[in-house]
Specification:
2 domains; 65% helix; globular; two-stranded antiparallel ribbon; mainly alpha
Length: 308
């Protein structure tokens, strides 16, 4: 948080400009923007692929939509990966415990290795089995293959001195695997978009039906990446709801009964379930209908011409 002061038991804004120049905003906003472009592009790629499989009417239009979406998708995911690199560096600087949890990095390392696969013991805070690439995490954090990356144990000791006794370690397993699902889905989208663009730019749409089906199912990849990314964000920030100021356990209301929370959560879940059902129903309906021919209305054309 920036641009605030603690007064009268609450945080009060004192500098609106500081909010606009908050470093977190300027790494998060582009990330969300590029996610939107990528999600829309892969949706169009998926639906276009379905019509290419079915050899629908107006096949040339679906080839064109496939080609345009491939270009937009490749550009979106490329910029997303580049921006994600800098967002990760910002995270390592501002919330180093989140980065440590994402990598299951128990102790500070220099150079720090990137984990391809780790099975760890959260109780003893040590690796049971790990496959790592030496120096890569340092490069991701410092743009150099040397450089210190703080580990969970060292940060826990530091936070105990700074904030008092307590457990400041987030759920490592959830953070670690959600981060990998997010990055893995993003990397897969990059290669899918690159291949789709390479083929469609040459006007070659003679895809194997299996490849077209893979293109269709890839429309779910952005949603998988987004969901896992949000789970990672919320899990790896624990135990903080406002980092360094307010812990989640202290933000829980002492006056709202559990029954009210259960009711609101149930209502919220049911409402979004209905919205999800309606969304999928409409997606399916209009995606299957495809592009509909509209004959020009000669009477309307004559009216417009006469008015002109």
């Amino acid at each position: 948080p920036v641009g605030y002061q603690l007064a009268n038991g609450r945080a009060e804004m004192v500098d609106f400009t500081a909010l606009l120049t908050n470093g977190h905003v300027w790494v998060q906003f582009p990330h969300v923007f590029f996610v939107g472009i990528t999600t829309a592009s892969f949706f169009i790629i998926g639906i276009s692929s379905w019509h290419l499989i079915k050899k629908s009417k107006n096949i040339e239009l679906y080839q064109k939509s496939f080609r345009i979406a491939s270009f937009a998708g490749f550009l979106g995911i490329l910029l997303l990966l580049i921006q994600g690199h800098y967002q990760g560096q910002y995270m390592a600087k501002i919330q180093p415990m989140k980065m440590a949890a994402a990598e299951a990095l128990w102790n500070t390392e220099d150079p720090a290795a990137f984990s391809l696969f780790t099975i760890g013991n959260e109780k003893t805070r040590e690796d049971v089995f790990a496959i790592k690439i030496p120096g890569l995490l340092s490069f991701m954090t410092h743009n150099a293959f040397t450089g210190s990356v703080e580990g969970i144990n060292d940060l826990q000791a530091e936070y105990e001195k700074k904030y008092g006794p307590g457990d400041y370690v987030p759920p490592v397993a959830i953070s670690y695997w959600m981060f990998r699902i997010m990055v893995g889905a993003g990397t897969l989208m990059f290669f899918i978009a690159a291949f789709a663009l390479y083929k469609s730019a040459k006007g070659d749409f003679n895809f194997n039906p299996i490849v077209l089906k893979l293109f269709f199912w890839s429309l779910f990849l952005p949603h998988i990446a987004s969901a896992s990314g949000w789970i990672f964000t919320e899990a790896a920030r624990q135990p903080w709801i406002v980092f360094g100021l307010l812990q989640t356990k202290d933000a829980v209301s002492n006056t709202v009964p559990a029954s009210n929370v259960l009711f609101s959560l149930t209502a919220y879940t049911l409402l979004y379930a209905v919205l999800l059902f309606a969304t999928v129903f409409l997606w399916k309906k209009y995606a299957k209908a495809g592009m509909i021919d509209h004959e020009p209305d000669s009477d309307n054309i004559e009216t417009v011409v006469n008015k002109a």
